[in-house]
Amino acid sequence: MNTAIKLSLFIFMLFMSVVSFATAFSVTSIADAGAGTLRQAIINANADLTSTTGAPHLITFSGAGIGTITLATSLPAITNHVSINGGTLGTVIINGGNSAAVSQGILYNAANCSGSVFQNMVVNNCGGPVGVGVYIQSPAISVTITNSRIGTNAAGSAAVANQIGLRIDGAANGGHTISNNVISGNIQVGLILSNTINNTITMNYVGLNVTGATALGNTGNGIFFNGACDYNTLHQNVVSANTGGGILLSQSSHNTITGNYCGVDQSGMVSRGNQWDGIGLINGSNYNMIGGKTTAARNVCSGGISSIASGIAIKSDVGATSSNNTVLNNYCGVGSDGTTAIGNANYGIYLGYMNATNNVIGIPGFGNVIANNVNGAVYLENAGTINNSIRGNSIYCNGPGIAPAAGQSNVGIQLNTANTGLAAPVISNSSMASNVYGAGLSPGDTVDLYYIDACRGCVYPNGKTYIGMTIVDATGAWSYTGGVTLNSNVTATVTKYNGSNLPGNTSPFSPCSVTLPVTLVSFTAFYNGNQVDLNWVTATEINNRYFNIERSLDGKNFEAIGKVDGAGNHQGYLNYDFVDPSSLAGVVYYRLKQVDIDGTSAYSAIRVVSILSSEQVIVYPTPANVGEDIHVVISNHTDATPVTIELIDMLGKIVLSYTGVGSSHVLHQASLAKGIYLVIVKKSLTTTTIKIIIH
């Protein structure tokens, strides 16, 4: 045998002397103590240290060991690599006998417990003063509790309460997984974590029975993080019908809360409200993510049943601040379909109590739906609650409750001294080009526009449908030119610029503005010899009464010089003309004022005409035949100023363009359609227009 083979065999034998396969222990008696009992199996498994690496020891149940094990005292703590599997769920029950001598049903509390799995078990009636159903205690790490019923009967249909359902304490790097359990009916909290990180809590029913449909609430909170619980994941739990809140985090940061149903049943469509907030972040809970940018990340936080029950709340007591939390894409006040009304009895989202700062409540494209909540949609209070951004949400049909915040009638976003009491923007007017304008803000601020829902209308402005955003310019003015629906109610918020990527204060919604019911396709004004020809084209008119033609010599002070009746209601293009036989010289300004049947009005953009020359423009032939050259002659034109000549159709489209010098010019048109066109002659200070016909 060569040296290499001998060395290999030596290493193999050494390895086998250190690592052994795990041992199976079978529970064959439901007695509290003695041979074949669960108590003895735990004692034996703890003593067998061969499983500290590799697969854990496994405790199973068979024969007379299947049934209810009623404890006289607490079971020994599991200090080794030990898994417990009850087999068919509901057949093995650990019952604490409601005895003060039973402080917990199961306890894992050693580093050697890593990788242990507790599954298919029922743990109940640990009802002593500090009774815990299942307890994981430092230095245990990476323990899994799955597919068990904690605080219920064997069927998971009724309460057989522990004081606390499941507790995890003090592991520097917990790494525990709590999944697919029913944790309901307990006297205090369902699941409590303290000073532990990197745990995953997923797909549990907390406060409902095994069907996920019937209330079986814990008397306290459903899930409670009791300080220094960071970097944990809560995903796809149903946490409802609890006498306290659903999910409550205190002094806990960097957690991810996604895909949970709080206050509804497992379908997300039936109210099973918690008494307090669906999800709450309190007392210095920072950098947590509630929801996210995917459908799977969305939480439903609805159905809160008491006057202090909001869908989501971020708040702190004196001396603490809950900050830099992000709330995206959640439903607060509706079911999982996004429309069915399941409102909270308080607010959809609440920020404040003392201090809540730098929190993000929605962004464009990933806003929250906040609807049907009794006291209002989003409520912020106290002067220490600042720099909270509220953007891109769908906010509608929220009530005034008993009363809005003092001095306010706006139940969409209420600021009770919070966000520096920032005032709502004012929509100064809307244009016939479906644009919206305003002024009086600070450069760099962001204005977000929304359509108002008919549920509350303009009495209590709520922004249901996000339209878009614009940035305030250097003058403090803003305009949104992306187009808005005609004859619709529009509202706006402003969010202060607070530096790159930092949240800024958001205002309440503005008083609503009704966008004008006319789409203006084009508006032109040209000097034509001894008169100014004005032409405009509309594409849609709804209840349009008339147009006033207004003129100004300084671009600021306008006077009406004429009136043209509108079409009332019309779909399709309409052409309008007006002639100003003006003898004015210099620069003259024109605009249109459109007036609706109900008296509302809007202005067009301003057109400028320069009347500074005695030059005359002659265009021939007119009418012209299709394909025939069009000649343009400028009399008394003696300088070398370039001349631009454009041929424009009645929709305002430039179909031919030419630039040259001199007094005589030719436009070559080969195949223009028959119709009416405008020939526009532009010099540096003058513009002249002449109408021609091609037939």
Structural category: mainly beta
Give the helix level as a range of percent.
under 10%
Radius of gyration: 37 Å
Question: Which segments are poorly predicted (pLDDT under 50) over 5 or more consecutive residues?
Answer: 1-21, 402-409
Average pLDDT value? Answer: 88
First-to-last CA distance = 109 Å
Dominant shape: elongated
Largest sheet: 13 strands, parallel
Q: Which range does the strand content fall in? A: 35-45%
Largest sheet, spatial ordering of strands: 1-2-4-7-10-13-16-19-22-25-29-33-36
* DSSP summary, beta strand count: 58
* Count, helices: 2
Question: What can you tell me about this protein's structure?
Answer:
The protein has two helices and 58 strands. Among the domains are: 292-515, no CATH class; 518-611, Coagulation Factor XIII, Chain A, domain 1, CATH 2.70.50; 616-694, Sandwich (Immunoglobulin-like), CATH 2.60.40. 4% of the residues lie in helices and 41% in strands. With 695 residues, it is mainly beta. The strands form eleven sheets. A 13-stranded parallel beta sheet has the order 1-2-4-7-10-13-16-19-22-25-29-33-36, with helices on one face. Strands 6-9-12-15-18-21-24-27-31-35-38 form an eleven-stranded parallel beta sheet, with no helix packed on it. The longest helix is centred in the N-terminal third of the chain and has 16 residues, at 3-18.
